[in-house]
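Hi Y.,

Following your request, here is the sequence exactly as I used it, all 141 residues.
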Amino acid sequence: MRYYQRNTYFPLTLTLLTLGLILFMFYAFTYKTEPAAYSIVTEVTEPVDAEAYRTDLAYAVVTFEDEYARASDDLSRLVAAENAVSTLLDMRVPTEYKDLHLELAITLNQLQAALRSTDRNADESLAALEQLKTLYPWLNE
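Below is the corresponding structure, written out as tokens. Let me know if you'd prefer a different format.
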């Protein structure tokens, strides 16, 4: 018995797609663009004024203490601590105050962790903050 075999375009379609893929890959890997003229951009950063930093940091600490004292619950205290950390992270720090800035950020982060914990004991963090204020009396201004 003889079967009638219909002609299909599948082999032709497959061949054309394969050739198209080969051409695409060839041009994709051999195409070289000439880079545009690069201009070296150097950003000049001005040094941070230590006195302005001290003023801004003292204001941030006093603002945090006011918000923390006015807070009626732990959630409000947590928001005050988060605002203070956000303010600290936005500041540019002079080199001579990097250690203070880091200690203050760590202390406020520990305060946040204490307020998020189940026992909500923030005494250690507040004591560390008071110790920083005694080491740097200008933080109270």
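The chain has a mean pLDDT of 88.

Thanks again,
Q.
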